[in-house]
Specification:
alpha/beta
Amino acid sequence: MSETNASITLADRDRPFWVGFHSVPYVGPSRMRRLLGHFGSLESAWNAQRQELARILDERGLRSLIERREALDLDGRMEGLQRANVTVVTLLDDAFPRLLREAPAPPPILFTRGTFSDFDEQAVAIVGTRRMTPYGREVTARIAGDLARAGVTIVSGLALGVDGVAHRAALDAGGRTIAVLGGGINRVYPSGHRQMASQVSDSGVLLSEYDPDSQADAPHFPARNRIISG
């Protein structure tokens, strides 16, 4: 087996454990990175003994992890994601956006629907008010459409107002667009943008750091802005 193929196999084998740790309360991105550094893989960390895990996790995180790994069927979880056409991209995958990896506090995993492209290296984020003036709508559509036709990927948050207009203009121009959600990609918010979300995933990427079945929540929206900017 070549070195490249071996690394792909190891990454795929470790992917369910990234999903597992992502679902554990009180074990956030920084602790996931420490676990990875200590154990060499999240598979080894997931299966580690309590006393070894206690070197990295506090009592609350340790208790949460033990309860979660006893209750979670990782194989079943990954099969469910596959059936829902959801791809898991980890921070260590080549497919993880390079600029986002370099941003402060990048998410450890992304739940995605669609396909990243090398063209996404040239991207512009367009976000703004949900209550637009006619002039604002016209200018947003013109800027987003012109950029998309020039080969620039339009990144936004699929919200009402500026976000939706920017996505729509990119789609109408035949360009690429990426939508970053403040909830799960199986529960598109706002619901009126579900058809647009489907079109985005057909020609770009729909993504979220949150569980695909989670509801949008107010604190998620400021957090997702770092992904849009990254």
